[in-house]
Amino acid sequence: MRLRNILIVVKDIEKSKKFYHDLFGLDIILDNDGNVILTEGLVLQDEKVWKDVTGKEVVPENNSCELYFEERNIEAFTEKLEKLYPETKYVTRLMTYSWGQKGIRFYDLDGNLIEVRTPMRG
Fold first, then answer.
1. How confident is the prediction for the chain on average, in pLDDT?
2. VOC domain spans which residues (predicted)?
3. Given pLDDT bands bounded at 50, 70 and 90, which one contains residue 120?
4. What is the CATH code for 1-58?
5. Which residue from 14, 26, 30, 52 could staple onto 38, CB 3.0 to 4.6 Å apart?
6. Which residue intervals of the chain bear CATH 3.10.180.10?
């Protein structure tokens, strides 16, 4: 058995496809009836589909998990985020940890938590 994908629920699949392409360079592999598979194994599912299938409500900003990305030029990434999505809600602004790694945490358009850090040295 192997883990194939990570699925997140989104309200506006078109806006989310653009968000994940603009910021992370993720491209569409499959776009099918409210389910979009992106490169790197991320799946976007329309909130209506999620509710129909599971019968469960979506809880934005639940902070129970996060998508983790690494970016060498995190300053340029942060500038792009602020320019393209000025309405972004931050959990932590760009900071440097005691061990030298830099990171930022914020919510996507639907309250899914994202962390971006520089790669670990060594």
1. 96
2. 2-119
3. confident
4. 3.10.180.10
5. 26
6. 1-58, 61-122
Indicate the burial class of 20 (C-beta count within 10 angstroms; 0-12, 13-18, 19 or more): buried
β-pair type (113-117, 66-70)? parallel
pLDDT digits (tens, 9 = 90+) for 27-41: 999 999 999 999 999
Residue 57: the pLDDT is 94
* Structure tokens, 3: 């883990």
Q: What span, in angstroms and rounded, lies between the C-alpha atoms of 100 and 17?
A: 32
What's at 67, amino acid-wise? L
Residues 53-85 pLDDT 10s: 999 999 999 999 999 999 999 999 999 999 999
